[in-house]
């Protein structure tokens, strides 16, 4: 296991280099000039040229990339062209806010989705099963921004139970986390139901019932544990996708997360912040996938890595 983890960690280097190349190229294909955005539309050509030289944008593209990679190995993401502060100081607080929101949303999605999927699989084709599948279909189909606005209208504007925007108290987490969790809850519920139905058909479940074990113990200790591998895969993928895809939720609820920061930075042509944000999200996604692979071995002793 230790050698496998070491190999996966070493693979982070080429993956991050590949992401850096792609992000570096795509960011520079964006229309507009960060020097003009920083200097202002009414700045003189001489001042714009001076700003471009300070940012290193007057150098050839391969020289700019070399400087970018060298700074990465030194742990330097560069300086924000919008605020003139280190990009890491701009990204890290906003990234933590997104992680908090994503973790709460995934916890809600896991708790509700797995519970609904298990009960639905135990009572297949019942009224409860049909209701769960109906809400799952709604959760998958409902656009995030629409659901966020509906929740805001009902629970914030009409009822006044929760704040509609910003971050500051635990109540601020409720609406954005529910909005972000809706789609994942539906997918987890459907995956749990499907996986549990397959497991419940196995012979060892029939044997356990023949031995007189309680149904609750059979479902939780035997069926659910063996059904957790595909569910764990979904959870790992969803966490990474929620980190990078929370931008709509953050925009609707004015959440100070990395998604909104990336949108603002793209509009301002703030290359260092955009590049640093994407690289950090890519790093987190790879680490989460590694953690999920390691978790497989604990869920199923038959799985081993060499």
UniProtKB/TrEMBL annotation:
It is a multi-pass membrane protein. Keywords: Cell membrane, Membrane, Transmembrane, Transmembrane helix, Transport. GO terms for cellular component: plasma membrane. CDD domains: TM_PBP2. Its main location: membrane. It is found in: Cell membrane. One of its GO terms (biological process) is transmembrane transport. The lineage of its organism: Bacteria, Bacillati, Bacillota, Clostridia, Halanaerobiales. Pfam families: BPD_transp_1, BPD_transp_1_N. Residues 95-296 form the ABC transmembrane type-1 domain. Belongs to the binding-protein-dependent transport system permease family. InterPro entries: BPD_transp_1_N (IPR045621), MetI-like (IPR000515), MetI-like_sf (IPR035906). This is Binding-protein-dependent transport systems inner membrane component. It comes from the Bacteria. The chain crosses the membrane at residues 9-30, 99-119, 131-157, 169-189, 235-258, 278-299.
